[in-house]
């Protein structure tokens, strides 16, 4: 089976020899951005090869246990961390990329953020009005809609009640979900196929349009001649072990990198430091770091039921943070809970009475970088939480504490070093407002990643232009969230897809 026909999918067991293909466009990475590009270009009549390192997953292969699931669907088993400020960060390795494991939260970047992108990064066509048609196109295709009341569950509704009592705006999440059952399993894969992850939405549409899909292929090099990309080369890799076997080469008129913000810079660096006349490839790494509080209520919350992340408050967006409800499998939650032995056991026994809410902060001053490892495609991630951004996270914790007590919590577990592991009243929680908190006191997590191949109107200061085209290579595009010039202040997926939708339109005109 040495050729791949239009509309065909190759999985690991089907590779029996080296493979060389030709296409108009090769897209590397099948996450939200790559999947949009692949579908839009096949709709435009282009021949497309979509390449994904991870395998496809079907519901019978999902692991309900959080740790096991991470080991199978996440890079470095889900244990990837930054150095500098130590923070866990997860990137999926699966057909559909992050959409397989994410909570399906869809937010448009606020107009004030996009205006700032335009003024600070010399962009001319990236206002909210410019992007709205692209957001709309994605929303229509995926059925992005408000989470219905009947699947919110008590832990989402308590958040709403707390916000209402304090006069903070809040709203049910918009999500790319059809027919949610409120099972709270988005992180380990939606068994009822309600979540419109890319593997059941954009990618099948691209295949129907004639795209060819290679799964379990890791691209290791972008091929080029002079200032033109000519294709990509890599190897078939065994799922879960990454053991390489057959060689794969795809020659194409145009290459789109959508391997994700931490992988695309590595690919460029390993390809002879390609598209890096600006010196910005792998620089400017930004996260959207989050802190979380667990609150324990006097009566049963039953947090297993409800949309994984069903409610949010954007009340404090201009002050730099967004608040959300959250649910994760108990094994994951347990790692973040303080205490050991009997104290930890008692806290775990409280889970049926608990809710977890988080705050994610726009930390524009906190920067890092992505560097290639010598014998691996995994990145070295260094990142430092800037001392000026710490008060934003501390403020988010204080507001979360207020919302918990306004909603009737009897205890909160703030998870901040140097502060009592449990606080039993708003008065006790004032320590979160009054005590200086240092970066090292916080337990952080950062799954929203940006800026490592940022767009900039000035070719000396950015890797791509605002259409995603590399300044140095007219037929090399980058589509993943690495092209964001800054944190979008809200969850990034929908903005990444809107930008990808726009890039695809330009690419379709170009070839
Ligand atoms: C647990 C979790 C929850 C999240 N929840 C939300 C949410 O609810 N809403 C939201 O807006 N955002 C959320 N995010 C973030 C969101 O999922 C990402 O921003 C989004 O997936 C980024 O899309 P992407 O296409 O840029 O990259 P990715 O989704 O990372 O896709 C990149 C793909 O490229 C593949 N790849 C990488 N290197 C290679 C290579 N060399 N060769 C071939 N293939 C390669 C990867 O395996 C991957 O499948 C969450 C993220 C995580 C981890
Ligand atoms: S909450 Fe459950 S049913 Fe709803 S989208 Fe997530 S995994 Fe699917």
SS-based structural class?
A: alpha/beta
In total, the number of strands is: 22
Beta-strand percent range: 15-25%
CATH architecture of the largest domain: 2-Layer Sandwich
Number of helices: 13
Uncertain spans: none
The share of residues in helices is 25-40%
End-to-end separation: 29 Å
**What coarse outline follows from CA principal-axis ratios?**
globular
Q: Are any ligands bound, and if so which?
A: flavin-adenine dinucleotide, iron/sulfur cluster
Question: CATH topology of the largest domain, what is it called?
Answer: Glucose Oxidase, domain 3
Q: State mean pLDDT (0 to 100 scale).
A: 96
* CATH class bucket of the largest domain: Alpha Beta
Main beta sheet: strand number and arrangement?
8 strands, mixed
The structural domain count equals 2
Q: Report the radius of gyration as a whole number of Å.
A: 22 Å
């Amino acid at each position: 089976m040495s050729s791949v026909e239009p509309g065909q999918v190759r999985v690991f067991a089907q590779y029996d020899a080296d493979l060389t293909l030709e296409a108009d466009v090769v897209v590397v990475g099948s996450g939200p951005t790559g999947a949009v590009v692949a579908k839009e270009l096949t709709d435009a009549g282009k021949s497309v090869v979509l390449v994904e390192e991870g395998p496809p997953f079907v519901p019978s292969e999902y692991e309900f246990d959080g740790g096991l699931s991470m080991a199978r669907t996440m890079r470095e088993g889900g244990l990837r961390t930054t150095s500098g400020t130590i923070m866990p960060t997860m990137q999926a390795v699966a057909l559909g990329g992050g959409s397989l494991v994410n909570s399906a939260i869809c937010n448009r970047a606020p107009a004030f953020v996009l205006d700032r992108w335009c003024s600070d990064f010399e962009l001319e066509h990236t206002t909210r009005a410019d992007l709205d048609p692209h957001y709309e196109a994605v929303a229509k295709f995926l059925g992005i809609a408000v989470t219905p009341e009947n699947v919110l569950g008590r832990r989402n509704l308590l958040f709403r009640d707390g916000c209402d009592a304090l006069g903070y705006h809040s709203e049910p999440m918009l999500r790319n979900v059809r027919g949610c059952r409120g099972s709270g399993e988005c992180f380990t894969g939606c068994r009822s196929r309600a979540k419109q992850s890319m593997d059941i939405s954009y990618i099948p549409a691209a295949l129907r349009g004639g795209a060819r899909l290679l799964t379990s292929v890791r691209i290791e090099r972008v091929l080029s001649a002079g200032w033109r990309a000519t294709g990509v080369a890599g190897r078939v890799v065994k799922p879960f072990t990454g053991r390489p076997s057959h060689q794969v080469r795809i020659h194409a008129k145009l290459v789109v990198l959508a391997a994700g913000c931490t992988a695309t810079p590595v690919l460029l660096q390993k390809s002879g430091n390609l598209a890096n006349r600006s010196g910005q490839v792998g620089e400017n790494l930004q996260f959207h770091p989050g802190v979380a509080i667990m609150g324990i209520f006097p009566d049963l919350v039953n947090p297993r039921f409800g949309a994984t992340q069903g409610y949010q408050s954007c009340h404090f967006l201009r002050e730099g943070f967004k608040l959300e409800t959250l649910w994760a499998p108990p094994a994951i939650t347990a790692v973040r809970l303080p205490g050991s032995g009997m104290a930890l056991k008692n806290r775990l026994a409280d889970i049926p009475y608990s809710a977890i809410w988080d705050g994610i902060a726009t930390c524009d001053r906190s920067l890092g970088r992505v560097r290639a490892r010598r014998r691996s495609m995994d990145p070295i991630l260094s990142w430092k939480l800037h001392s000026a951004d710490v008060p934003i996270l501390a403020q988010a914790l204080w507001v979360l504490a207020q919302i918990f007590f306004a909603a009737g919590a009897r205890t909160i577990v703030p998870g901040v070093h140097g502060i009592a592991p449990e606080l039993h009243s708003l008065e006790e929680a004032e320590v979160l407002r009054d005590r200086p908190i240092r970066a090292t006191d916080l337990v952080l997590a950062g799954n929203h990643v940006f800026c490592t191949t940022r767009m900039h109107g000035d070719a000396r200061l950015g890797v791509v232009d605002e259409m995603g085209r590399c300044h140095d290579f007219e037929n090399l595009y980058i589509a993943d969230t690495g092209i964001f010039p800054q944190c979008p202040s809200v969850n990034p997926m929908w903005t990444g897809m809107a930008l990808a939708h726009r890039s695809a339109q330009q690419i379709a005109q170009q070839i």
